[in-house]
Amino acid sequence: MSVELEAPVPLPDLKVVEEMQMGIVSRFGEIPQAKADGTPVVWASVVMPKEIFQAMDVAVEYGDMLGAYASIFGLSATYCQEAEELGLSRDVCAVHRCGVGLACGKERDPIFAGSFAEPDLVVGSNFPCMSMSRSFLNVADHFGVPSHFVDAPINTWGRSIPDHAVRYYAEQLRGLVRFLEEHGHTFDEDRLKEEVAFTKRLNEIMDEVDVYKRASPMPIKAYDNVIASTAPIALPKAYRTVDIIERYRDELKERVEEGVGVVDNERLRLMWIGMPPLCDFKLLNYPERHGAVVVKSMLEYLTGFTLDPALIDPEEPFESLARAQLTSPANPTIGGTIDYFVQAAKDYRVDGVINVVKRTCGLLPGMQRLTKEAIWEAAGVPSLVFDLDGVDEREYDAEATKAQLDSFVETLLAKKGA
What we know:
alpha/beta; 4-stranded parallel beta sheet
């Protein structure tokens, strides 16, 4: 079963990223097919350790990815409203409301009617946010299916995670395996070791990619960057290979060596902190009209591929996944996240930071002002902070948003010219 991409999104600039985009979309059609073949479908979050699901051949319906793509396809108002009518507060993250509305609502748009299958099991987690720990219950209750919760400790320690926290989270991951085994899935630890080794290699390549993306001029558009950063966790099995990530790295390397940039005359380098505008993805490329490029965005760490490969040992798969995830900047608290952005501002030599506050997020709004101040103190880089719920289109004002971006970029250009 295939799904045609008809969303109002930019076409990728890099051929390999276009291949990734079509692969991600084609994955939606695999879940109903797995259901038709008798494979139980599991509803879960895309930021949970997917190595366990891969090793156990689990057909996973990523609820937050469904919600994100529903917004990209212009359906967020419909599905968020559906979720609210089912009792989910409008203050819950719009991505999760969108996913719940799509799954549990009365009707589905044709593009999702052919790519959604009713789940047989539901898995929830509090990584990286509390919205997922609430919204998964709506899906489990609606379909009356067994559910399981994976508790991830909040990182209050920094880079040196104590052994007791690693052991606790590793045992939580083993509990997920036991839950899946109780409902018909088979576990082979050697296969898990293979998946963890694969993740380690992917992170090594993505570290190389990160170096090329720091080049000036910036070799990749902001939209392409988001798709490529999401690909390692969102691609179906046929696409999820080391080869496609290596080709992505090599295309970037070639562009850097040839001096190919996103714009003819790169005047500003920007960083985007906060949820990208899913319901208006073209906005990520909007600053290019001023000769400005978004060189870094928050989605790059939310997708899970800022894991430190040095922390990953395939011979200790559970402990490795636990330690790497707990130290990821996607794991609260705020300290690790702020450190990540301060370092990125320096590495990418950014001229300004776009800091967008998503009203329905229970985590990001509290860190935006602290992040702004930390980046200014450490790197002397100014930030623009403004409200933008780029998921629920009912709360999105395109013209006002563009006007704020225009004003900020023009101010930076004037300052740089002076």
